[in-house]
Amino acid sequence: MYHDSGGNVASLQIFLIVSTCLLYLVAAGLFSKGVWSFEINAWNKIIGGDAAEVGSGPGSYDIRKSVWHVNCCNPEIGGGGGWGIFNAILGWTNSATIGSVLSYNLYWIVVIAMFGAMRYNELHGHWPLMKAKKEQESEQIESKQDVELVQPLPEKKSLTATGVKEMRREDSSSSDTRTISIDS
Q1: Backbone angles phi, psi at 51, to 5 degrees
Q2: Which of 50, 52, 60, 63 is the most buried (most CB within 10 A)?
Q3: C-alpha distances in angstroms, 35 versus 97, 98, 103?
Q4: Does residue 133 lie in a domain region?
Q5: What is the number of domains present in the chain?
Q6: Ranges assigned E (strand) in the chain
Q7: 69 part of a folded domain
Q8: Is 167 found in the same domain as 118?
Q9: Which residues contact 96 (CB under 8 A, 6 or more apart)?
Q10: Same-domain status, 73 and 120
Q11: pLDDT in tens, 48-66
């Protein structure tokens, strides 16, 4: 049976793209849920107990910092069902705070900015807000590297009394001598 290797590469690439996108969603949920957990902990300290004991209604969340609170869709009551899966994977909760919403949006702003910066670097050859290297300097560096590769340095080998070989390379353009010791 004949398998087209190009199709296998394409399906692997699609798999990796989808997996990466799912990981970004999981990371956004974890970041947001972490901020939400800090805020819920602060609320628990204010009320002097665990807000989950009150249930899902009034008193279970701080109304001063709440963006939304829905009485349905609670992943912590009745086993959670599908909402429990959303909670585990994407960080869903039925009670959103200002901090959790801002952190979720901030995460995506940073991710989008990094993708934009990588794209800019790919197109322009340098990172945004950084000066581009002058083409003249880079051409001089490349030509100097080519000359060094074409003209190898002459080697002189000697053996010392201690059994250590010394290799000396003398650079004809300068008067310095570099010594490299190699244990034998």
Answers
A1: -65, -25
A2: 60
A3: 9, 10, 7
A4: no
A5: 2
A6: 66-69, 95-97, 155-159, 164-170, 177-183
A7: yes
A8: no
A9: 36, 66, 67, 68, 69
A10: yes
A11: 877 665 556 666 778 788 8
